[in-house]
Amino acid sequence: MLAPNDETDLAEAVAGAAGPLRVVGGGTRPIGKPVAGEVLSVAGLSGISLYEPGALTLVARAGTPVAEVEAALAAEGQRLAFEPMEHRGLLGTSGEPTIGGVVAANVSGPRRVQAGACRDFLLGVRFVDGRGTVLKNGGRVMKNVTGYDLVKLMAGSYGTLGVLSEVSFKVLPAPAAVAVLLIEGLDDGQAVRAMAAALGSPFEVTGAAHTPKGVDGAPVTMIRIEGFESQVRYRASALADVLAEFGEIAIETDPERTRAGWAWVRDVEPFHVLPGDVWRLSVKPSDGPEVAARAEADGLLYDWGGGLVWVLVPEGTDLRARLGAFEGHATLVRASEATRATLPAFQPEPAPLAAIAAGLREKFDPRGILNPGLMG
Amino acid sequence: MEMPVPSAAVLSKKARIVARLQEVLPEGAVIHEAQETRAYECDALTAYKCPPLAAVLPASTDEVSAVLRICHDEGVPVVPRGSGTSLAGGALPTADSVILGVARLNAVLETDYDNRVIRVQSGRTNLSVTGAVEEQDFFYAPDPSSQLACAIAGNIAMNSGGAHCLKYGVTTNNLLGVTMVTMAGEVVEIGGAHLDAGGLDLLGLICGSEGQLGVVTEATLRILRKPEGARPVLMGYRSAEAAGACVADIIKAGVLPVAIEYMDRLCIEVTDKFSGAGYPDCEALLIVEVEGSEAEIDEQLGVILQIARNHDPVELREAKDADEAARIWLGRKSAFGAVGRINDYMCLDGTIPVSALPHVLKRIGEMSEEYGLAVGNVFHAGDGNMHPLILFDANKPGDLETCEAMGAEILKLCVEVGGCLTGEHGVGIEKRDLMHDQFSGDDLEAQMRVKDVFDPAWLLNPAKVFPLAASAERRDFAA
Ligand SMILES: Cc1cc2nc3c(=O)[nH]c(=O)nc-3n(C[C@H](O)[C@H](O)[C@H](O)COP(=O)(O)OP(=O)(O)OC[C@H]3O[C@@H](n4cnc5c(N)ncnc54)[C@H](O)[C@@H]3O)c2cc1C
Question: What gap in Å lies between CA B127 and CA B118, rounded to an integer?
Fold first, then answer.
């Protein structure tokens, strides 16, 4: 295992690599085609290098534990607004999730529907490309259009274009209060319509999820409002009026229960203990129920107002074959190594896009040593 | 400003190129007479002008593709153009180039309120996107000051921002999909009404690529429901330090306004005279706007005004009705126009960490003395995106050069304090040769390799973004 402690060592390790490298942060998100190669751990590049609450900016080395970043932010009443999902429970992994891993997999959570994804909050990156060259793009300021936006390109590239050494974020104040509107008993189609009505209201819904099977077995639709106290109270009741036609509405404001409820959605908790493969569909929200129905799933969980559908199917199922054509894409998130070695984890792209992606990989990693094949 | 020597080979076959373009476009869509191509000789960076070989105005993605195939085949550089409001010379032609204008591509293709997206052709103006969804109380968030004129195509190419991006983000945060034609004429679809990318984030890469990777013909944009209301307050301060500290405290307090705009004395005075906004007599003025219902606004402004008072303001003015709100914004919105009336000016666009604001403003003041040119400052304070306006006299020999030298020094200062050369206007030709101050040779090489993938022959807007010397080998090889 290669375990550099700083960026210079990292660059040397990549430059000196004789064969494929399997890049890991905390190793908690083994998504994609299994990579045979020497492990390159970035965990040694750790620590927050700059945090200016007044400028809403945080810079950290890629191996910094997510928990450390979140704790530092919480101490100042701030947070990562994109609400990164934690994959350990779903994937049955252990280890310490790192901030670089969050970026490499562009990991977001329920608030993505309103605030944006990880890539939207990422201000800058430093990374080592496949030649072993240290590169930077973006920076630490909130608005920056200087040159091409390789920051976005690195987010979600799963270590196939470069090994991240440092990342900088725009952070946001954490609101004082939260309320969750709960509606029971909606079918998937009604739920998506209710969520669309909520998201199309002026009340800045920061979460809209639906489970056909809640903790006690009945369908539950959850809509989240955040802000200062009187604002949340006002918006929750105004929103309840908007949604009245969909059924009886309960409003939950207990901080611990609402936190746990959204962690349940964010981390796809209902599937943790159930056997089977887990897929993630990104679709046009109103298409969600219809596309999901084609999955003949053992379990479903809708987030992002229906735009993100978690699908549980028996091991080895080729879900794409069941779904046929649809607008969006399907990613295989949890499956055995054997399944991930045969079914493409990422949706195969139309030829022109696949050619562009291959061209970019060739430029950033001409030797093809960085997580080769992981994204297909 | 140095531009590449036009290709003699291309110039000599103008007649053939024009004839081929006329074959694939309707009558009137190919502009090639010298007196007519002049209309495309520059964008809003008017100090630099050069009529193109020809200009074309295709009306569909297929026509764009046909044009690009011909230009690719003939080895003709292509400069995409939206509305020509770039302040960086992004749409400046070269004599051997074809301007590909998307002004005729201005239709709304689909509005989808359930999924909160609109699909438009890229030549549609920014403001008319909001115009198309306003009846349902929706809007398109990025709001550059030029929104009446600028096109979505240019917004995507420059990743444009606006006064309200502190809350809503810039173009890239509100763009979900594009139809794009590569230089070889191939049509690609990226993204759509779903929220995230399937493979690599090519959408994020294309946004802000200044027309160098492909020609965008359609876009899927996120639309949002309008807030119930909005209200600005105006704050006058005796010093930049006080105003800067106030901004930092507001942000730290956890109430995030939708906009925090800053103006200094020169801009206050000039715009006040021009617009009659009735601004106070002070060194620094802030406009802070919050959104929500009446009660929500009251509560947020309560917190903000308390903070504002702690910094000893000269004046605090809360808008009591829509009229007063409009008056508070009036001066800010007409700032560029007002300064333009009294003088020629160059508008810079560097971003700095907000904590560096007082230091940078002080240094700009010193440079203004050194160079003997007045500077006005008007900018988005919440995110540190500065717009120093350097006043000069275009008719006075040497003044433009002095102004450019001073501008370069200010931008280098922005980089030095941890910021960047451009926050929303783009590099274009204007900041091209300063790129070495922000990036290493390796950093630039990595970016140029990206262009190699999309446009191996370097025909699309080739003389922009990268220092000419850095891109020379690639452009020469292509020619
Ligand atoms: C008074 C004034 C105020 C301004 N205020 C702001 C502001 O607040 N915020 C801000 O961000 N900017 C502002 N700008 C700058 C400018 O308006 C923006 O950069 C705008 O996005 C340019 O749009 P356009 O349609 O005019 O593009 P153009 O000027 O025509 O072109 C800009 C760039 O886009 C490329 N391009 C054009 N069409 C396409 C296409 N179809 N495909 C690919 N590339 C293409 C061009 O090649 C060029 O590089 C302002 C400009 C002025 C004059």
Answer: 13
Pocket lining for ligand 1, CB < 6 angstroms: B 43-44, 79-87, 90-91, 102, 122, 144-146, 150-151, 153-155, 157-158, 160-162, 210-211, 215-216, 336, 424-426, 461
Task: Give A131-160 as a DSSP string.
Answer: TS-EEEEE-SSS---SS--HHHHHTTSTTS
Residue range B394-420, pLDDT digits in tens = 999 999 999 999 999 999 999 999 999
Domains delineated in chain B: 8-101 (3.30.43.10), 108-225 (3.30.465.10), 230-335 (3.30.70.2190), 343-416 (3.30.70), 436-478 (no CATH)
**Domains of chain A (ranges, CATH numbers):** 7-173 (3.30.465.10), 177-266 (3.30.70.2190), 269-342 (3.30.70)
Across the strands, what pairs with B218? B121, B179
The neighbouring-strand residues paired with A128 are A134, A163
B175 and B219 Cβ atoms separated by less than 8 Å: yes
Q: Can you tell me the ipTM of this complex?
A: 0.97
Residue A75 CB partners (closer than 8 Å, separation 6+): none
Q: How many Cα atoms are found within 13 Å in the side-chain-facing hemisphere of B82? A: 32
B147 Cα–ligand 1 center, Å? 10
> How much is the pTM?
0.97
Amino acid B479: pLDDT? 59
B259-287 tens-digit pLDDT: 999 999 999 999 988 888 899 999 999 99
What average pLDDT score do residues B168-173 get? 97
With beta carbons under 8 A apart, name residues in chain B contacting A133. Answer: 442, 446
Q: Which residues pair with B315 in a beta bridge?
A: B236
With CB atoms and an 8 Å threshold, state whether A283 touches B172: no
CA of A245 to the centre of ligand 1 (A): 44
Q: Cα torsion at B408, B411, B413, B419 (round to 10°)? A: -160
Please list every residue in chain B whose beta carbon sits closer than 8 Å to the beta carbon of residue A149: 159, 172, 204-205, 207-209
